[in-house]
Automatic annotation (TrEMBL):
Entry EC no(s): 1.1.1.133
Pathway: Carbohydrate biosynthesis; dTDP-L-rhamnose biosynthesis
Name of the protein this chain belongs to: dTDP-4-dehydrorhamnose reductase
Biological role stated in the UniProt entry: Catalyzes the reduction of dTDP-6-deoxy-L-lyxo-4-hexulose to yield dTDP-L-rhamnose.
Species, as recorded: Streptomyces polygonati
Catalytic class of the enzyme: oxidoreductase
Span of domain RmlD-like substrate binding: 4-283
Record keywords, A-Z: NADP, Oxidoreductase
Superkingdom of source: Bacteria
A GO MF label: dTDP-4-dehydrorhamnose reductase activity
One Pfam family matching this protein: RmlD_sub_bind
Keyword Oxidoreductase tagged: yes
Gene: rfbD
């Protein structure tokens, strides 16, 4: 029996992880939300990790712009909190799957970032997440897995695809940026891959290290919005392209967030499907909960 611990279980990915891991035969899942466990509380983290085989950390500070206003608080969660989890896993003999981000890169590449490509965060959020990555690699060289994801969307919580569905019902046209390139990733599809990675890790088939948990292919936010409209039976011409400078934000966004997926082959696992295939599967579920 595999004993799983999910932290951040009330979030978008956390809720999908709870459903996916709970459906596995021979598994036992403990799902802890922020109200149940503060990952910066070392003694509480150690007690929570005890008795578990795999910890999946979906907890974190996700307010990218807010991190620019209070970097210390963001890093306390995304850096120091992850270190507390890694320390507890090291003491308890557990495997840790740490969810990270494309924001650890500068976003100035012209080809997909490899798992071992040099990092260079543009802002506070990326710096904090990178600190968490480094803690996992340092403290858990044999049992630490960093899974970087990007452009995540799903049924639970706010996200770009859900926002497009909501705005489509209220506006005739939408202006969406067409100068940022990435890989829209369905949180449920990522949860399935994380489950497979955790099982492969326990079986000794997956080497510790960095994996890129993003969809295959690439598209801009504008292209994604048009696909949401098209696959929902709406007129994609209602979506118009614009540039990022029309929507100034406190935190700089990477212009290029395309990640390579060579790491999955090391574990004998397939990378996530193409972004459009994922979107087509996810949209009926999102429409059911988002559209009046």
């Amino acid at each position: 029996m595999t004993r799983w611990l999910i932290t951040g279980a009330a979030g978008m990915l956390g809720r999908d992880l709870t459903a996916v891991l709970g459906s596995l035969p021979g598994g036992e899942v403990t799902a802890l939300a922020r109200a149940d466990l503060d990952i910066t509380d070392g003694p509480a983290v150690d007690a929570a990790v005890a008795g578990h085989d795999v910890v999946v950390n979906a907890a974190g500070w996700t307010d990218v712009d807010g991190a620019e206003q209070d970097e210390a608080a963001a890093t306390r969660t995304n850096g120091e909190g992850v270190r507390r989890l890694a320390e507890a896993c090291a003491r308890r003999g557990a495997t840790l799957l740490q969810i990270s981000t494309d924001y650890v890169f500068a976003g100035d590449a012209d080809r997909p970032y490899r798992e071992d490509s040099p990092t260079g965060p543009l802002g506070a959020y990326g710096r904090g997440k990178l600190a968490g990555e480094l803690a996992v690699r340092q403290l858990l060289p044999e049992r630490g897995f960093v899974v970087r994801t990007a452009w995540l969307y799903g049924e639970h919580g706010r996200n770009f695809v859900a926002t497009m569905l909501e705005l489509a019902a209220r506006r005739d046209t939408l202006d969406v940026v067409d100068d940022q390139l990435g890989q829209p990733t369905w949180s449920r599809a990522l949860a399935v891959r994380l489950a497979g990675l955790g099982e492969a890790a326990l079986a000794g088939r997956a080497p510790a290290g960095i994996y890129h948990g993003t969809a295959s292919g690439q598209v801009t936010w504008f292209g994604l919005a048009r696909a949401v409209f098209e696959l929902s039976g709406l007129d994609p011409e209602r979506v118009r392209p614009t540039t990022s400078d029309r929507f100034p934000r406190p935190a700089r966004r990477p212009a290029y967030s395309v990640l390579g997926h060579d790491g999955w082959a090391r574990a004998g696992l397939e990378p996530l499907p193409d972004w459009r295939e994922q979107l087509a599967a996810a949209l009926p579920l999102l429409r059911a909960v988002r559209v009046p």
